[in-house]
Design goal:
The complex is a heterodimer.
Chain A (H helix, E strand, L loop, with lengths): L10 H5 L4 H29 L11 H35 L8 H9 L1 H11 L11 H5 L2 H31 L12 H32 L13 H35 L6 H14 L15 H12 L1 H16 L8 H24 L1 H7 L3 H31 L5 H27 L13 H34 L27
Helix pairs in contact in A: 2-3, 2-4, 2-17, 3-5, 3-7, 3-9, 3-15, 4-7, 5-7, 7-8, 8-9, 8-10, 9-12, 9-13, 9-15, 10-12, 12-13, 13-15, 13-16, 15-16, 16-17
Chain B lengths: L6 H28 L7 E8 L2 E5 L5 E3 L1 E5 L4 E7 L4 E5 L4 E5 L5 E5 L5 E7 L11 E7 L4
Parallel strand pairs in B: 1-5, 4-10
Antiparallel strand pairs in B: 1-2, 2-3, 5-8, 6-7, 6-9, 9-10
Classes of the chains: A mainly alpha, B alpha+beta.
């Protein structure tokens, strides 16, 4: 049995295990730890912006450090490791293999993350999560910036190792009776996102090294004072990190593909269109990176090319939404907590995508670029879609991980408060952007519209904060004292599950 | 799979593709018009540095933090930076262009009403980025 927390085991046995469910558990606990750390920073940011003038954060430098570490933490230390946790638990079972293809590599990939998290948090850099040169070269202070660069470097290697492991596990270790077309959509999502990582990450790895040597003064790749070009960094960075958006969102969509049919008590509407949309997204994800750079002085032709590339990603995303709705149509839907999170996530995914179309249109981008519109837009993706899908999946896998049920009422309250909070924060941020408020500012002039919108957003953030406390209490309390789950069918919806407890863990 | 027809999905995807084509075509047309600089636009050299804006008119007049222009005339900004990336922004007139060291970017506008508008930096540039602000003052034509 892999009901991890039911039978007490010494912690070192889990830590030094290479079994996929143990590594999955480590990923899970660490990513949730960073979720709460990064979320606390978000609350500090929102509290500061509640009113113009310095509120709780004394100075601009501290504020800049806080939003930098907030972004870095939640993207690299929550979303990606959380997806790895789910992948570790479920991918080997879905392809009917005993473990990941390379168990030791798997454990190594995990153990690279805590040191990089420590580098990022102990350094507390201030140059935003994309470290724009020349600021990051000539202006960003001291060891913090270098520690961030090393932290990200290690995380990049860890991502690549994890991706290799998923690709080999899915393609080479799947059961011989199973064709690739029979691999469940959740595993397909890991295959797609891992392939994107393998193509995209090396570019950023190179850019990070160049940034580091630029900071040391031995090169001038991105330093105009030494003949370099900061725009080159922007291209390298976004060539990695626009596809990375799909690395983040595709596993979350895969998780929804697991939840939606289960709680609709119907098979997925179209398995093939799900696979097709994953593959299409992975490819067109590479054709849109420079839409982040319209305002850097690109030519009309360049802008047109990247606008077309960006709009090309929309039909694939829309196919996923169609697939979800068609699956729910006429289903006997049970709105248990995981289903509520998944459906809420789909609604916010649609909203985020609609805003994205407006961003992509060249003339509109000059209104929204680098304002709070953009902050609202991508938070609807990372919070509204990815975190919603992930948290829904966490509730879904909770009985498999702990052997106990979470408290259903608290789970629903968590969802309702988070959903309301997310709308209050990120929809108002879109409006704030249309009023022209730039992002990444510590203080703002007392313009009445700006104050009103910021206050609504801050109140929304506090509501999310409260819901996350309920979540934490529910997770911890139910792990020890929750009702024992029915291992055959914890949610009472019937059908065949992919249960981690089918796996044989030698340490148990 | 199987048992249901796929034509609603094809129609749906077709509608989405059609909407995207329409958005793209409209955006292409609008951007083409917006980027067309009118003849005889007066050139203003804009320089961003940590953490203020400097303006130099064609006649050599220099201003810091404030920019005086005349209603009804077209102006073309040539945007420079001396240190790190900034972004020159007059939100009310949708003027936005990055100031990047080692490059000169251009953007134009023609003020239509007398009044004051905020100028701000929209690209993160460090400690006082939040207060890298200025004022655009549109006046009646002098002549």
């Amino acid at each position: 049995m892999v009901l991890e927390l039911q039978k007490p085991r010494p912690i070192w046995q889990i830590m030094f295990s290479t079994h996929h469910t143990d590594v999955g558990l480590l990923y899970l606990i660490m990513s949730l730890g960073f979720l709460f750390l990064g979320g606390a920073l978000a609350l500090a940011i929102r509290a500061e912006l509640f009113l113009p003038g310095a509120q709780i954060i004394g100075d601009a430098m501290t504020f800049n450090r806080i939003f930098t570490v907030h972004g870095t933490t939640l993207i690299f230390l929550f979303i990606i490791p959380f997806a790895s946790a789910v992948g570790n638990y479920f991918v080997p079972i879905m392809v009917r293999y005993k473990d990941m293809a390379y168990p030791k590599l798997n454990a190594i990939a995990f153990w690279m993350i805590p040191p990089s998290g420590a580098l990022i948090w102990l350094g507390f850099a201030d140059f935003t999560w994309y470290a724009t040169p020349p600021y990051s070269i000539i202006s960003a202070p001291g060891p913090a910036a270098d520690m961030w660069i090393f932290g990200l470097k290690i995380l990049g290697v860890s991502s690549v190792l994890g991706a290799i492991n998923f690709v080999v596990t899915i393609l080479k270790c799947k059961h011989p009776d199973m064709s690739i077309g029979q691999v469940p959509l959740l595993a397909w999502s890991f295959l797609s996102s891992s392939l994107i990582i393998l193509v995209a990450i090396p570019t950023f790895a190179a850019a990070l090294l160049m940034l580091l040597t630029d900071r040391l003064g031995v090169t001038g790749f991105f330093n105009p004072a030494m003949g370099g070009d900061p725009i080159a960094y922007a291209h390298l960075f976004w060539f990695t990190f626009h596809p990375e958006v799909y690395v983040l969102v595709i596993p979350a969509i895969g998780m929804m593909y697991e939840i939606i049919p289960r709680f609709s008590r119907k098979p997925i509407y179209s398995f093939n269109s799900g696979i097709f949309a994953f593959v299409l997204l992975s490819i067109v994800g590479f054709s849109s990176w420079a839409h982040h750079m319209y305002a850097t002085g690109m030519s009309f032709t360049e802008k047109t090319v990247f606008m077309v590339g960006t709009l090309a990603a929309v039909p694939a995303s829309a196919m996923h939404v169609y697939n979800f709705i068609a699956t729910m149509w006429n289903g006997r839907i049970k709105f248990a907590t995981p289903m509520m999170w998944a459906v809420g996530g789909i609604a916010l995914f649609f909203s985020a995508g609609a805003g994205g179309v407006a961003n992509a249109a060249m003339p509109l981008d000059f209104t929204t670029h680098d304002t709070y519109w953009v902050v609202g837009h991508f938070h609807l993706f990372v919070m509204g879609t990815i975190a919603f899908g992930s948290i829904g999946y966490l509730y879904y896998m909770y009985p498999y991980v702990t052997g106990r049920m979470y408290n259903e009422a608290m789970g629903k309250i968590h969802f309702i408060l988070s959903f309301i909070g997310t709308i209050l924060v990120f929809f108002t941020q879109h409006v704030l952007g249309l009023y022209g408020m730039p992002r990444r500012i510590f203080d703002y002039p007392p313009i009445p519209e700006w104050i009103a919108m910021n206050q609504i957003a801050s109140i929304g953030a506090m509501i999310i904060g409260v819901s996350m406390v309920i979540f934490l209490v529910n997770m911890i309390y139910s792990a020890g004292k929750g009702e024992p789950a029915n291992p055959e069918d914890p949610f009472g919806v019937g059908g065949k599950y992919y249960y981690p407890f089918e796996a044989k863990n030698p340490s148990h | 799979m199987g048992g249901h027809s796929n034509w609603p999905e094809w129609i749906y995807v077709g509608v989405v593709v059609a909407i995207m084509c329409w958005v793209g075509a409209e955006a292409w047309e609008a951007e083409r018009l917006v980027e067309h600089v009118p003849e005889g636009a007066e050139i203003i050299k804009v320089t961003g540095q940590q953490w203020f804006w400097t303006f130099e008119h064609e006649d050599g007049t220099k201003e810091i933090g404030e920019l005086h222009v005349e209603k009804g005339k077209a102006y073309k900004f040539e945007i420079h930076s001396t240190d790190v990336n900034h972004s020159f922004n007059i939100h009310d007139y949708v003027v936005l262009m990055d100031a990047i060291p080692g490059r000169v970017n251009t953007v134009w506008f023609a003020p239509t009403d007398v009044g004051e508008h905020d100028i701000q930096c929209r690209e993160y540039c460090g400690l006082i980025h939040y207060n890298m602000r200025g004022t655009l003052i549109v006046e009646e034509p002098h002549s």
